[in-house]
Amino acid sequence: MGSKIDLNETIISANTGLDAIKRAPIVEQNTGLKCLRIQDISQNKKYEDWGFTDVTVENFKKFQLKKNDILIARTGASIGVNRFISEDCNAVYNNGLIRIKINEDKFYPKFIYYVLQSESFKQHINAIAFSTSAQPNMKIRDFLRFYFKDFPLREQIIIGDFITHLDDKIELNRQMNATLEAMAQALFKSWFVDFDPVIDNALAAGNPIPEELQVKAAARLALGEARKTLPPEIQALFPKAFVLSEEMGWIPEGWEVSTLGNEFSVEMGQSPPSTTYNQVGDGIPFFQGSTDFGFRYPENRVYCTEPKKFAKSGDTLISVRAPVGDTNIAKFDCCIGRGLSAVMHKSKSKSYTYYAINNMKTYFSSFESEGTVFGSINQKSLKNLPVLSFSKAIMEIFDIYVKALDKKIEVNSNQIENLTNLRDTLLPKLLSGELRIPEAEQLAADALN
């Protein structure tokens, strides 16, 4: 250990993929065959979300994605981003990507993949990228001239598996969060969009079901004993009939159509002077728009020493400029720029606020398609969006049901952040030889306990 090698010494082949227009076009119909593209890697899309394509048998054999392949974007804004293929896929790749196949007799593919995640590799890509018509590109021979520290195969395996273990924990938490949020969203939709408890009450009372809701009512009846009803004391909180509203169609009797401005506090952002921004932690976290949004919480990247407008911890952040309607939750008190608004329901329910705003995507999308180059929504339009007003008791019960799910999401999100920071701290030290695996394992154990 100690000498340096370049990527060219680790591979048995490096090739670009099929022509994206002539040989592997994306098609609408389900051909059973997928094509991996740059955007699939840069957006971290799952296999099932890749586009379908249609290629010849010969091209499929030559360009099929196989276990331990590594794909690297060779052009565009995402140049250098890469993806590891963990198993054989019924898929090919197009010519926006380079595929490298590792010599597995001497090198561990997952270790090489993590080498390509390093900051030094990103610096190498920046150094070799050249522009044609303002589009960054790189040549395979230049890409393969990236040098890094050599390790015996056994140590490569240990390092690769250690970092993989951290990544697996991160991914498991992400999957758990997606499941938990889907559960909460399903409950919100059942109560406040589909009005399932009201339909159940109307059916039980023999009250008429409006024509527009009869399909939903029939679906509820078809469930038979499998239909999940609420405990009687909670079910009784919901009305048992519907009334027609001008703004939102049929709504539960006793509920009212209100506006977002009446039911939520709304704080529109204002951008401080750019001279007050920094990335060294001076001041408080500052979010100009949705750039730093994550799955649920934004990433603290920019800070501001002279904040103008604030979001409080727990507020739902709404992007009021393209993309209009993207949401996150403020993890801490923070400063918001003119691309964001901060809202909180008058009940102070963080959970209801978040899911209610997320359910307004249809309204927000209309402000993306009004003929302007960049979509936006102003304070007046935001406050005038229609929302439902209903009893405090129902709100409190919903909050009880969902708060536990949201708390678990918060815990998982914190662990994701800790694991990500740990991985990003340990990886360069392991790749440089500064840190050995026993030391890294101890640091990981200390950080996670």
Overview of this structure, please?
By secondary structure, the chain is α+β, with helices and mostly antiparallel strands. Among the domains are: 4-147, Adenine-n6-DNA-methyltransferase TaqI, Chain A, domain 2, CATH 3.90.220; 260-389, DNA methylase specificity domains (Adenine-n6-DNA-methyltransferase TaqI, Chain A, domain 2, Alpha-Beta Complex), CATH 3.90.220. The protein is built from 15 helices and 25 strands. A hairpin with a 2-residue loop joins strand 10 (130-132) and strand 11 (135-137). Helix 3 (109-115) packs across helix 6 (153-192) and helix 14 (392-432) packs antiparallel against helix 15 (437-448).
Quick description:
The protein is α+β, with helices and mostly antiparallel strands and 449 residues long. It has helices spanning 38-42, 57-63, 109-115, 119-128, 140-143, 153-192, 196-205, 214-222, 232-235, 260-263, 350-358, 361-366, 379-383, 392-432, 437-448; strands spanning 4-6, 11-16, 26-27, 34-36, 51-53, 70-73, 82-84, 91-93, 97-102, 130-132, 135-137, 147-149, 242-245, 249-252, 256-259, 264-268, 277-278, 284-287, 303-304, 310-311, 316-319, 327-329, 334-336, 340-345, 386-389.
